């Protein structure tokens, strides 16, 4: 066990920083972490002293995705689930969100970036959306947002194969804005978020509103339908085989399905 706080929240110079802080587990996300981050983003939305939000991890890792043990032992689904509340918060925040990413960015570690306004990734970042390999489906409205950024074929490659891809491919697909060295990516992200926080706040919020206008309702609806399908698949035999194989450190066998 660790006494370390799994998410650190700080506000300085009108920027709220939310940092996944569970490095001994590669920042694998638990329901507590989702709830903490969701509450922080909701607070940022209401606080005039916060003009922009930065989401990051620890120096070597963004997040390895969901904590599998927490995920299986405490399955949460529906709009009130902590993960749903987190996704709702980042997808509807009117203030700009910048993400700084390094190391593993797995599952929701990649899909949450689709809701950020700017993303800086270290050149050592490894992205992955392995839902199909786990007997699951996309989440976070990634099946809606990713084809609009990357085109159908690239989105299909990333979501259907569920394989690792690097920062250059993420940039080509429109998932990230900038690639930086591992020792400077966070500084670049901080520079960007501080620039955003220093600009006229009403103008920034209205510009973001216009950028997202016309797709907000579609994003929320897709997150809802993906979430329902995800919960159904999670209880199914394919996901059970995938999770069991992962725990037993063997290759899953889907030939019987």
UniProtKB/TrEMBL annotation:
Listed SUPFAM superfamilies: ClpP/crotonase
Organism domain of life: Bacteria
InterPro entries the UniProt entry points to: ClpP/crotonase-like_dom_sf, ECH/Chromodomain_protein, Enoyl-CoA_hydra/iso
Keywords on record: Isomerase, Peroxisome
Principal location class: other
GO MF, any single term: delta(3)-delta(2)-enoyl-CoA isomerase activity
UniProt-annotated location(s): Peroxisome
Protein name: Enoyl-CoA hydratase
UniProt source species: Oceanicoccus sagamiensis
């Amino acid at each position: 066990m660790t006494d370390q706080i799994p998410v650190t929240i700080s506000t300085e110079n009108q920027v709220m920083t939310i940092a996944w802080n569970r490095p001994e587990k590669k920042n694998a996300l638990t329901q507590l972490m989702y709830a903490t981050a969701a509450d922080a983003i909701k607070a940022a939305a209401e606080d005039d002293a916060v003009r922009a939000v930065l989401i990051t991890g620890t120096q070597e890792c963004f997040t390895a995705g969901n904590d599998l043990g927490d995920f299986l032992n405490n399955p949460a689904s529906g709009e009130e689930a902590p993960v749903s509340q987190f996704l709702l918060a980042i997808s509807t925040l009117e203030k700009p969100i910048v993400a700084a990413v390094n190391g593993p960015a797995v599952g929701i570690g990649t899909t949450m970036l689709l809701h950020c306004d700017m993303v800086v990734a270290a050149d050592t970042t490894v992205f992955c959306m392995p839902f199909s390999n786990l007997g699951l489906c996309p989440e976070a409205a990634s099946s809606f947002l990713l084809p609009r950024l990357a085109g159908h074929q690239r989105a299909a490659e990333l979501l259907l194969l569920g394989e690792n891809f690097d920062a250059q491919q993420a940039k080509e697909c429109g998932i990230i804005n900038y690639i930086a060295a591992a020792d400077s990516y966070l500084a670049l992200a901080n520079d960007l978020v501080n620039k955003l926080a220093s600009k006229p706040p009403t103008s920034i919020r209205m510009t973001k509103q216009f950028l997202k206008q016309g797709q907000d309702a579609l994003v929320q609806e897709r997150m809802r339908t993906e979430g329902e399908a995800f919960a159904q698949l999670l209880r199914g035999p394919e996901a059970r085989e995938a999770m069991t194989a992962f725990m037993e450190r063997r290759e899953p066998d889907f030939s019987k399905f």
